[in-house]
Write a structure and sequence with these properties.
This protein is α/β, with parallel strands linked by helices and 432 residues long. It has 2 domains: 93 residues, Urease, subunit C, domain 1, CATH 2.30.40; 296 residues, TIM Barrel (Alpha-Beta Barrel), CATH 3.20.20. The protein is built from 12 helices and 21 strands. The strands form 6 sheets. It has a 6-stranded mixed β-sheet with strand order 3-2-7-19-20-21, with no helix packed on it. α1 packs parallel to α3, α5 runs parallel beside α6 and α6 runs parallel beside α7. The protein is globular.
Length: 432
């Protein structure tokens, strides 16, 4: 036992050293002089227009001017990015910083919260260096409010990472989607989420999480999913009245509720209750889609994680199940696009490697979106979902200088978003 403890401590210290080294390497001081970014192209994500060439004037944390040519102050530093396209920093509305590839239960049972927190800082750096300058962390999967420390460390400039909206632990019912099912009951294994089994308990959990620093609440509303042929089903977890109580309490606290909702009837219950997003959204009824369009409730499709699960399934049968759900999801997604459901990009990165989630853009296009629509899903739409649409998601004067440059033209080749050449967040250059 003592040997195992020493090994675990050594691993944690090694990760801490690596994290500190990464922070030292990738956290330069903010520029003391104005910066002019120059590139062959600049993308207006609202209109889809390309400026050729394109320039952005940055002073401190904010964008001052955007155009084909901006004023070059005498003391300005000019950064010539060559044959690239300037665009807003990418935004992922569904990430798990506290997960990495491998069995999730092994991580939550075998890795200490300090070790998982250190790993989360490395994941945050990887995502930032891939061009994701803002993210919504959708639950620590059993690490409680540890994401508060990660968010605050990023905000204080101690470590590199995206702007974060965090939820702490997700919320689940006894025996629900993230309970420790299928394990020896005598071991009393802890769930990966926080229990709430009534409206009163939901309110109490929301208050506790707000006290600990959560920016929003994540609730598991459906699961476990089943598919037989073309018939998809998933049980709901909370009643509509219980969800309404959670949404009311979140609003009182100045927060929103996001739900894991793969299908009906739980998805419709959540939409009627007034949640901000339905994440995964494999199945939505016509009535639910209409309500989402009318109220501006976002669907967050998360295609990338399904692709990963199908390709790395433990058994052939599991792989076939994931492929069947994926095919069903694609068909339903096309219905959602036709119904003009608002879409925000979310990859569910964590089960697959952090820093690779720009694959989600390509999958959105592959599954029916236009290239501009996919880019908007991961910029202006995701910014709106995170409540930051007046500050990020566009290259516009007055907005924070969260800017990336990608090789090539992403309107012609969406895979360009997987080849980020330059990253600036808050006026600080992290990658060049």
């Amino acid at each position: 036992m003592r040997t195992q403890s020493i090994i675990e401590l050594t691993c944690a210290v090694a990760l801490l050293v690596a994290s500190a080294a990464a922070a030292a390497e990738a956290s330069p001081a903010p520029a003391a002089q104005p910066i002019v970014l120059h590139a062959a192209r600049l993308l207006d994500v609202d209109s889809g227009n390309l400026l050729t060439p394109g320039e952005v004037l940055v002073d401190g944390e904010r964008i001052v001017a955007v155009g084909a040519q901006v004023e070059h102050a005498a003391d300005a530093r000019v950064v010539d990015l060559g044959d690239t396209t300037l665009m807003p920093g990418l935004i992922d509305a569904h990430v798990h910083l506290f997960l990495h590839p491998g069995a999730e239960d092994a991580q939550t049972f075998n890795e200490s919260v300090p070790e998982r927190t250190i790993r989360a800082t490395l994941a945050a750096r990887a995502d930032l260096m891939a061009g994701f300058t803002a993210e919504r962390d959708m639950g620590t999967e059993g690490a409680g409010a540890a994401d508060t420390a990660v968010r605050d460390a990023i905000n204080r400039g101690w470590i590199p990472g995206p702007r974060l909206r965090i939820s702490g632990n997700a919320i689940d019912i006894l025996g629900g989607h993230e309970d420790a099912l299928g394990l020896n009951p005598a071991a009393h294994a802890l769930p990966n989420a926080t229990y709430a089994n009534s409206a009163d308990e939901l309110v109490a959990v929301l208050r506790e999480q707000a006290k600990l620093g959560a920016d929003f609440a994540k609730i598991y509303q459906t699961g476990k999913d089943r598919i037989a042929g073309n018939e998809f089903s998933t049980p709901y977890q909370f009643t509509e009245d219980e969800l309404r109580a959670a949404v009311r309490e979140a609003a009182r606290l100045g927060r929103k509720v996001a739900v894991h909702a793969t299908g009906e009837p739980g998805a419709g219950m959540a939409a009627r209750a007034g949640v901000a997003s339905l994440d995964h959204a494999y199945q939505l009824s016509d009535a639910t889609m209409q309500l989402m369009r009318e109220r501006g409730i976002f669907a967050v499709p998360t295609f990338a994680v399904l692709e990963h699960f199908a390709e790395h399934a433990a058994t052939p049968e599991a792989g076939e199940r994931y492929r069947a759900i994926g095919a069903y999801h694609v068909a339903q997604f096309k219905r959602q696009l036709a119904a003009h459901v608002p879409i925000a990009l979310g990859s569910d990165v964590g089960p697959f490697p952090h820093g690779t989630q720009a694959r989600e853009f390509a999958l959105l296009v592959q599954n029916g979106m236009t290239t501009l629509g996919a880019i908007q899903a991961g910029t202006i739409n995701a910014a709106a979902l995170l409540g930051w649409d007046k500050d990020i998601g566009r290259l516009r004067a007055g907005y924070y200088a969260d800017i990336v440059a990608v090789r090539g033209d992403p309107l012609r080749d969406i895979d360009a978003l997987q080849h980020v050449a330059f990253v600036m967040k808050n006026g600080t250059i992290y990658r060049q």
